[in-house]
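User: I need a structural model of ATP/GTP-binding protein from Streptomyces pactum for a docking pre-check later this week. Nothing fancy, just the predicted structure tokens so I can convert them on my end. Input:
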Amino acid sequence: MSPRRNRPRGGGSSVGREEEPADRYGLERSVSWQGEEWAVRHISGGAATKHYRCPGCDQEIPPGVPHLVAWQQDGGGDDRRHWHRACWNARDRRSARLLRSRNAPRY
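Assistant: Understood. Predicted structure tokens for ATP/GTP-binding protein:
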């Protein structure tokens, strides 16, 4: 029995194929939410190098975890917020007021 091949069997070769340069911070798109335009950018796990606090669930996003960054387009880049992808998708279903336990840290 021969070992399994780990290389793709396709007839395509990378010669002559134009590749776009890899964008470290991902693609940016515009989303309309609550009557305002928001810029949303996906961050890959390799580009996530710091700890962030998700405003949707108030949990920490550790380094190396893919997530997204959102900010209002008419505002500056200083108002960026780092969200878990699931929290951003559920932002309309989440309440603005978070209930915390007595010993929970406030960041």
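Before docking, keep this in mind: Confidence is low (pLDDT under 50) at residues 16-23.
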